[in-house]
Amino acid sequence: MASLAVRYRYHGGVGTFTPLFSRWETVMLRFDLRRLILLLALTAVLLTVINGFYSGYQVQRDILIRNTLEAHRVYAAKVAYNTEVFLRATQQNLRVNAERLVEHMDDAAALQRELDLLQRSSDNFNNLVVFDERGVVRAATALPQLIGRRLESPGTHEALAKRRALISEPYRAVTGQLVMMISQPLFDRASHYRGYVGGSIRLREKNILHGLLGEHYYRDGSYLYVVDGKGRLIFHHDPARIMQDASSNPVVAAAMRGESGARPVTNTRGVAMLAGYAYVPSAHWGVVSQRPRAQALAELDQLMLTMAQYAAPLLLIIVVVVWWLSLQIARPLRQLAREAAAMDSHGATPRIEAVRSWYFEAQQLKQALLVGMRAMQQQLNRFRQESNTDALTGLGNRRELDSVLDDWKYSRQPFAVLMIDIDFFKSVNDSYGHDTGDQALTALAQLMRDSAREGDVVCRMGGEEFVMLLPGADAIGAERVAERLCSCVEAYRVPGLPPLTVSIGVAAGIADEAPEALLREADDALYQAKQQGRNRVVLAVV
Ligand SMILES: Nc1nc2c(ncn2[C@@H]2O[C@H](COP(=O)(O)OP(=O)(O)OP(=O)(O)O)[C@@H](O)[C@H]2O)c(=O)[nH]1
């Protein structure tokens, strides 16, 4: 807390310190406690909300990405598996039929019949062709004009050269159509190679494979494509992209390596995708199912918006509660500060006592203020007492007398004044010393105190002169008190001194605008008592 400690700059002279604040403290001083609490609480609430939304968004985003990747991985794997099953079944079908076909190699009509039968038995192929061992077409289902011709295609050469079951790379046929061929060698019973039967599948036309790979529901921006072993697109919802090279795409490259899985990827067009991919072993194809990342996450934005809508009323309630709480917390401190600033005003203590300090610190502050004020009040009372008291006799002094008369003036208090003066006191001092004189003054003061009733005011005016104020007393009553005091003094013996006497002037009246007039009258009467020989009481004639 050292940084918040108040420092002071001295300007010289008394009370010329002004507090020094750092720039930060100066900024903070613009806030009162209520605003400070509000600011802090709202900052905390805001940070909590932002943190909640941010972490919620992150978690949801990760879940969404994971789920999307998994869904596309599963879908790509399923499609690849079905394609693999289809290709193997088709190869198996050709292998079985090859045994029958080879028996009719020397009977063109029978061979054509068998081939037509095979063509009609399934939708697997668009065209079936039987080649002899030189690559001459012996029978064909869809293109009879090919019969008798020798075909010089890469697929034909490969099939003739390898003499085993093959699945060709997709290629452009003489018709210009994109096709692939599944071929099966023909061996007779003596195991002589007699050629091969090839089934061509047009990738862009209706057949089972097209049904498997070419038709998908492209909802939510999701779509599926297939690449061949060279990374060329052979199935894609955009026809313009067929046979385009996609091998630079990381998931295509992974699928070409025979891998299956899922990962975020940026495609060849720079679009961020969430892709699942799988490998079709028998054809060396890759199947990729994917969805644009932005479209997948668009749902999350909507979710966040919905969450914000749900959270908004609660947030509003929190703000109102915080505002109300800040008021409640700041209120006792503001009240205490206001009352402390005016603690010298009338009724400050009960006002501070009335402040509702409902929490610990405010209560502590209130108690501290009250204790401080009580201590200050006691100190003031002591000062007032001391300044209104005669140090030697303990009686009230002239200030006390004035103060009493002031009070009585407003209540128009009837009262009598006894102006008392010790006779020949100078000679006491001169003969017995000043200290003995002081003892005599103290003793006579006590005599006066003793002869006063409750409510009477006894003051030493200075020197050997005293005043007694008798509230409610009339002149006769006051004269009686004065006579009695005279007798008491005369009868009293101060040790080491001869008997002392006093002269008393008495006046009675009402404390009005100028109660001092009554004092003057009593003083005049005292003067007369002195003149008349001392040790007597003279009543002023009003
Ligand atoms: N011991 C003592 N003497 C005081 C004090 N104050 C005043 N005196 C003395 O009181 C004496 C007053 O004398 P004066 O005013 O002449 O009056 P007095 O001798 O009493 O004569 P009268 O009043 O005319 O009877 C002076 O000698 C003062 O020094 C005090 O506090 N202590």
UniProtKB/TrEMBL annotation:
Keywords: Cell membrane, Coiled coil, Membrane, Transmembrane, Transmembrane helix. Residues 413-542 form the GGDEF domain. Residues 101-128 form a coiled coil. The chain crosses the membrane at residues 36-57, 310-330. InterPro entries: dCache_1, Diguanylate_Cyclase, GGDEF_dom, Nucleotide_cyclase, Rev_trsase/Diguanyl_cyclase, Sensor-like_sf. GO terms for cellular component: plasma membrane. GO terms for molecular function: diguanylate cyclase activity. It is found in: Cell membrane. It comes from the Bacteria. This is diguanylate cyclase. It is an enzyme of class 2 (transferase). The keyword Membrane applies. Its EC number is 2.7.7.65. It comes from Pseudogulbenkiania subflava DSM 22618.
